[in-house]
Amino acid sequence: MIGDIARSYEAQTERQQLDRLDEWVNHYRSFAAEGQCAAYIPALARANPSHLGICIAGPDGIAATSGDTNVSFTMQSISKVISFIAACLHRGVPYVLERVDLEPTGDPFNSMLRLELHKPGKPFNPMINAGAITVASLLPGESPQQKMDSFFSLLENMLGKRPAVNEEVFQSECKTGHRNRALAYYLSETGYLEVEVEHALEVYFKQCSIETNIQDIAMIGLILALDGCHPVSKKQLIPKDIARLTKSLMLTCGMYNASGKFAAFVGLPAKSGVSGGIMALVPPRSRPEALFRDGCGIGIYGPAIDSHGNSVAGVKLLQHIAQNWDLSIF
Amino acid sequence: MIGDIARSYEAQTERQQLDRLDEWVNHYRSFAAEGQCAAYIPALARANPSHLGICIAGPDGIAATSGDTNVSFTMQSISKVISFIAACLHRGVPYVLERVDLEPTGDPFNSMLRLELHKPGKPFNPMINAGAITVASLLPGESPQQKMDSFFSLLENMLGKRPAVNEEVFQSECKTGHRNRALAYYLSETGYLEVEVEHALEVYFKQCSIETNIQDIAMIGLILALDGCHPVSKKQLIPKDIARLTKSLMLTCGMYNASGKFAAFVGLPAKSGVSGGIMALVPPRSRPEALFRDGCGIGIYGPAIDSHGNSVAGVKLLQHIAQNWDLSIF
Amino acid sequence: MIGDIARSYEAQTERQQLDRLDEWVNHYRSFAAEGQCAAYIPALARANPSHLGICIAGPDGIAATSGDTNVSFTMQSISKVISFIAACLHRGVPYVLERVDLEPTGDPFNSMLRLELHKPGKPFNPMINAGAITVASLLPGESPQQKMDSFFSLLENMLGKRPAVNEEVFQSECKTGHRNRALAYYLSETGYLEVEVEHALEVYFKQCSIETNIQDIAMIGLILALDGCHPVSKKQLIPKDIARLTKSLMLTCGMYNASGKFAAFVGLPAKSGVSGGIMALVPPRSRPEALFRDGCGIGIYGPAIDSHGNSVAGVKLLQHIAQNWDLSIF
Amino acid sequence: MIGDIARSYEAQTERQQLDRLDEWVNHYRSFAAEGQCAAYIPALARANPSHLGICIAGPDGIAATSGDTNVSFTMQSISKVISFIAACLHRGVPYVLERVDLEPTGDPFNSMLRLELHKPGKPFNPMINAGAITVASLLPGESPQQKMDSFFSLLENMLGKRPAVNEEVFQSECKTGHRNRALAYYLSETGYLEVEVEHALEVYFKQCSIETNIQDIAMIGLILALDGCHPVSKKQLIPKDIARLTKSLMLTCGMYNASGKFAAFVGLPAKSGVSGGIMALVPPRSRPEALFRDGCGIGIYGPAIDSHGNSVAGVKLLQHIAQNWDLSIF
């Protein structure tokens, strides 16, 4: 009985807390003015910079949404998390880690410097472009289509549906991706690519061009928060060790070369993309008074990004939430 | 009643788990052969490479010790954590972060590259030497002695005693520290040092030369695990935000340029030193079946280090423990 | 009369000097063992490493040849000199120098480092691959074929014939040139390439694959020695200012990242290629007792190259000749 | 008789040419506005930026002077040429070249990058600060005073007098030279310095602070032009091989990271200093119609320097002279 009252009181407090989300979203939306939509391809440049939306998914379902919740956007670098997991699932962690390291770099996401500075040129981590292109080449299958199938298959297991590739974005990425081509040819020459450059790039550009939304990325985040277990089916989609590895990688390298500051002031594993998406997650933890003690996934969309490539309003909103609700893993 | 039985059962299981520590220490001790004691100064070179000791401190006191528990060693880079906290306490976080960033680099601890590559040469984080020397210059007080006082004062609050400086080590560091002098003069020229080069270095070399042991660093780790609160006096020695910031920094940058791999396979905030010490910690968390749910600090000593500067046996032991007891924060 | 005797005496001495060439060639041939033939494509790997040949062309014709004088080889990087001249002829020096600098780098020929280190990524000089690919894109004409025509046209003016492209080498370069592709895509992204990447590379790979021999490159060297004037037709094929610019560039950047040492110990403008060719030249100078006072061109072939990419025996032979005959420009 | 007339005609023409110097000096003086006096120490900052003076010394004495001919200034980096020669004289070329390379770098004069990028950190050439500090440590003698003695002794042989050290400049250099201290400590740690850091720096700062003038540096340039032979005493002060080596080094590395462009558009061995001095030279050469066929030394002073560290008006004046009088060595 007392338990019931306590739980009811808790639920009420939680509701009050969640209700503040709208206020926060409205407040942080204005910070988008400090950033700009990615402009290297038309589809991204056309985004509405003042959009800001958030979805929080807990083990029992969507816990809260606020702001612009119905905008779809392309995964961009958030897809690097999925392809890393898919490569580990199919090739095994040791095989993957022979071809890509797990160290943060402090360099911009498209940097080539380290490939030449550190012989033999092993990419430093799977969250920078060099590492992600290498990982794309490791996906199972001979053809780009087969590789995409293994990517989509993992995504389907998590989301219960197969998302579409945005063809316009994919074509634009192909056309403008010369820096990525430079990275890929370099990797090909040093032997890190397992397939032809154009095949690896097709996979990479396609995974970046997958349509998504904040509900989907909150769900993926939640599955990672739950160590790879689907909250509804309870199926272990990703082995715990791969889920843990992935979360550590998100924390140390997920927010481009602002990952250290994000870890310090937000304290959550997260991965951003230049389209303005952020996939974050809260692992279950023991703070008795805390919201989301059983873990949650968070999807955010705010297309105006900063010089690192992270959603300006999105990062500020997440920081506010994490500090107010004491979500940090530290 | 049932609660009592449960607790008693739990305690028994915990005991059984902790009893396995001796076995693990014995097993991993042999991996020291893959490393070597730091040889740049005689006092470190004289260490016994096959030493391996661990101490785990929980909120209720020392929970377990095993192996070579009575060897004293110098703090070396573990002191960087203390001086960063002391600087933040006295100068405020924003002041400190204007002078040192929080980004991991992927470079060796004594690298100068980035200072020149990234104008204006702000050190990338307080855990690499360039950042730590900058932080030493920020400690309150005019003279090196006053700066050391603020360092010692924090340490005394945490440990209830004032540790000694190993004079032989300090003199050796002074004599051989030309790479650190190079860093310090560079930082002085770019304006990041607040005091004269030799004063900053005196503080830095002295903090590195402080005698410590695994019990002490386990205790410091525990206080950080508890968000800055002393487990016995319950005093908040370090504000929660500084403690959290420090823990995130340890996770992203604490194990030199192997921090990413350590986060991936151990998953705990930790800081190592070239003398072979590792200070690690487990924040409280919610896994019901877990050991050390209320958090703990871990002190390890194993003087044979790898090419990154981390204790070979120490890292392997920690990894084994973290995986067996499910200690990862992710 | 006395003049005639003097001239006759001089001629005799010159003959005696030139006769020693055979002895020197035989001596230095053995140093090929310190190097290796380039192995990245089959055609180069098949070369006979103990080959060594030299041809010296003066204003009055071939002055001396020695060793393996009938081996044909591909131009490789020696072609960079020709394409730089052709680009300057057709686009004007200022236009070309807006797109490629004239500074030596100390880096290997295929390095990408500086493109990223020095924003906005202007190639440091036309003798490293990044610069040469940029220059190839500047040749007049829309299509690769038209660009090659302007290259060949200059070559025909100098040699009185149109050399052939070695199709096997060209195909191999195309197939294996991933590092060059990486450079080219990088340059394309930063805006330094005037044509599509594959078109620029086709020109670059083709110019590298042109068949040549020591007589031809001695002739080209001679024309440069004579400030662009053909020794027989007396036509000014290259304006003096472009010839001078080219010679300075050969001196500061022509021998890859050993150019400084070559300038110091040989003291002649020269350009080498990984096939083992060296094109060197002696500008007219005033040492009264000197051989080749009126200038000469020197062609050398010795396919075993050192780690920089220069013919081992060729460099040693040239150094011996330059020091014995006092040919240095300094 | 006809010879006399010819010679007289020639002398007249030469006179007419030299008379144009005043006009050119006046014209190029105005370009000083594009640069600024070095401001890192007061003595340099106080220089009059519109000063411009030139002295040309031929084998028969001063051939021409123009502009501000009586201003004295400190040698700064021009002294690097003298100390390199002194080190080679006393230690032998091979000994010196084991400790410093001869390759141009493309980096700013005070760069540390390459020391870390290229293990084991051998300085790339004696004209950048890292190389010059290393060379200073190689001068014969135990104490800084003895090392300076060997430096002064070479200078006395060339100039017939012992120049003074500007104490104010020396003290300022000592006080502000933190970047040089950083370089020196780095070099000390990698083993390239033969003496203590502060001793090497004392020598280096002192040699930089030596008072000189355009007459003196023209004379030094002339001696190098004459392959080390004093024009009056005919004594061989510097062996020919060391003189040649030095001249090649000036050409490839003497004008900081604008050496390539200077070689291309001026074409003369030269060394500049941040005080605004340029020491250039013309080796004897065979152009029959040329001025200074027997070689000359050129001293220039113009304290407003560009971003590379070279006198703006001085470089432009030299380029104009070299092109008008066809002085290029190429």
From TrEMBL, chains A, B, C, D:
InterPro entries, per database record: Beta-lactam/transpept-like, Glutaminase
Record-listed E.C. numbers: 3.5.1.2
Keywords recorded for this protein, A-Z: Acetylation, Hydrolase
One GO molecular-function entry: glutaminase activity
Hydrolase is among the record's keywords: yes
Catalysed reactions listed for this entry: L-glutamine + H2O = L-glutamate + NH4(+)
Binding site residues for substrate: S77, N129, E173, N180, Y204, Y256, V274
UniProt entry tagged with the keyword GTP-binding: no
Domain of life (superkingdom): Bacteria
GO BP annotations listed: glutamate biosynthetic process; L-glutamine catabolic process
Subunit note: Homotetramer.
Similarity remark: Belongs to the glutaminase family.
HAMAP family for this protein: Glutaminase (MF_00313)
Name this protein carries in UniProt: Glutaminase
Organism (species): Paenibacillus elgii
